[in-house]
Amino acid sequence: MKQEKATKKKRNALDPSQDYPGFFRIITSYLAQYKLAVAIAVLGAILTGVGIAVMPHFIKYIIDDCVTPALAAGVSDAEKAAYMKMAIFLCLAYIGTAVGRQITWRIGLFFMLKALEGVIFKIRSGFFNHVQHMCMRFYDKSSSGELFNCIMGSPMANIKGFLNQIVMNVPYQLVSFIISLVALLFYDWLLTVILLVIAAAMCFVNRLTRRKIRRMTKAYLDAEAQASKYINDMLHGMDAIKMYAIEDTTISTFDRHLIEMKDKGVRQTFSISYATMKSELVQFIGTAVIYAVGAFSCIYRGVSVGTLYAFLSCMGIILTTMNGWLNMLLNYQSADVGMRKIYDVLKENTTTPDKEEGRAHNIDIERESAKRTDKPCIAFENVSFAYDKRDIFHEFNCHIGFGESVALVGGSGSGKSTLTKLILRLYEVSEGQVKLYGRDVRDYHTHDLRRSFGVVPQAPFIFYGTIWDNIRIARPDASNYDIIQAMEIAHVHEFVNDLPMGWSTLIGDGALSLSGGQKQRIAIARAVLKNPDILIFDEATSALDNLSERHIQASMEELMKTHTVIIVAHRLSTIRNVDRILVFDHGTIVEEGTYDELASKNGAFRELLDGTEPESELTEEQKAAAKK
């Protein structure tokens, strides 16, 4: 357990604060975990940069020290042969430098890719780990489509693209840039000054465009996030779309999102291309000026042809490098906007934080202690809670004993399901305490707390995979016998045996091929397999037919003998045999008692019974009590 928590904590290399620390600070915090790989990659890049910067100078010496002297008047054949040998030697040295440059580049590339992909992995893993541990209030206001887009869409793609540029190109380009610039100063000061003026002009033109591109990039990412949110909602609601025959409406709405993305994408890409074009235009004009001044220098200032060639080659390295850096700065704007979007999620704090390491209570010890001292299994003490501005509980009190089966009934929004969510600490109470085994649920690690419960929700989620895997997910270390037994208790075999591959049948995303009742039986099998101390059935039989309901009801009643059971019920026929029924109305328990006791009164439960239960389902005793 401690190792697992340490791993979770380690995944997020940066502890987010309220202020955005900047793109490079975040990235360097992740790169720090790959120091050796980065060091080897940088060394390889330095050697590559040296090779790139040195190679043009071989041509200078071949022209000035071999070709030009050999063509001079009065040179003997023996001297020409010596010049030729020197030229061949320089050519071989040129080839050797090129091969060495390729080798060092490949080595540096391998280690830099390890570091780069490691950083991307850490960001994605840390992001997913963070959202997994967020509270339900976070998910109430966050779209799963936006979260998915944030980590797998353009924001991460922009970050990865920029990192590819900076870690693959900048180290070797920086070395070759410095060496080439120093060489130019030795070759000709006038040409070097003109080159520096050109470089300054390129930087000025680039700076004028960056803010506009940043604004356009943010607009595009916002449009993409909205489109991702919409298509995620529509894909999950496909059954409703079909039922209401609103395909045309959803298509036209999605097309509007796509058109907005297209228009903003065109403007963003064109702006980047236009900014690049302006920088390149300055570069072309400057190159023409250099050629003209270079020709003048060779004719009137005594500069050699080899020197001019070497100068132009080094100038090409410098201007190409600068143009790449300027384009990279434009891409940085996109990467920075993407990182801000990710960071905005990472800086969100959960409203249900865990206890500090070593301070959480052991749930097994507390359970045994509560049994010995006759404390209730679950207790609500003066609890107040609200969803945003909608109040649910105010100074609410309730107790559930060990081994007791309790049904929660009442109208929609009366607080029944909210009570179970507060027990599981999916939400935090505003005031008061929710206690499990005599301890505030905040005194336990949330992971340990929730593992003590088996929950069958009203709309269970079925993961993509086989039916077997969907049940085993509740307890991965369960034996085959335990899984089969859980299936039998939940009557899963009744429909599994009719499937083409039995429990190995692959079911789609959300189990769209299964009926609501079949999904609920899988969820019940999960809860049974988990074998927790407390079972929560939240409308667990609402989607079952009468025959299946009777089977599940028998299973639930068998579980009531050995477990503490909480049943959130709408079909009141399923709770006849519970120990106690709590009737909710606007966050208050207005009645409590057994089924027969409440059915014989003219109270809130009787009104629910009259409104939801067919009279034929009542026993003769209940009918007589109702008449009285």
Overview of the molecule:
By secondary structure, this protein is of the alpha/beta class. The chain contains 22 helices and twelve strands. The chain has a domain at 2-346: ABC transporter transmembrane region fold, CATH 1.20.1560. Strand 4 (431-436) and strand 5 form a beta hairpin. Mean pLDDT is 79; it is low at 1-13 and 613-628.
Please write out the topology.
Elements: H1 2-11, H2 23-31, H3 35-70, H4 77-132, H5 136-141, H6 144-152, H7 154-187, H8 189-236, H9 238-244, H10 247-300, H11 305-346, H12 363-372, E1 378-387, E2 390-400, E3 405-410, H13 416-423, E4 431-436, E5 439-440, H14 446-451, E6 453-456, E7 465-466, H15 467-472, H16 480-489, H17 493-496, E8 506-507, H18 516-530, E9 534-538, H19 546-560, E10 564-568, E11 580-585, E12 588-593, H20 595-599, H21 604-612, H22 620-627
Parallel strand pairs: 3-10, 3-11, 6-9, 9-10
Antiparallel strand pairs: 1-2, 1-4, 4-5, 7-8, 11-12
What is the third-level CATH name, the topology of the domain at 2-346?
ABC transporter transmembrane region fold
Highest CATH level, the class of the domain at 2-346? Mainly Alpha
Radius of gyration: 36 Å
Number-wise, the strands total: 12
Report the total helices. Answer: 22
Strand content: 5-15%
The CATH homologous superfamily of the domain at 2-346 corresponds to ABC transporter type 1, transmembrane domain
Which of globular, elongated, flat, extended, rod-shaped describes the shape?
A: elongated
Q: What structural category arises from helix and sheet content?
A: alpha/beta
- Give the mean pLDDT: 79
Largest sheet: 6 strands, mixed
CATH architecture label of the domain at 2-346: Up-down Bundle
Q: Low-confidence spans: pLDDT under 50, at least 5 residues?
A: 1-13, 613-628
Ends: how far apart?
59 Å
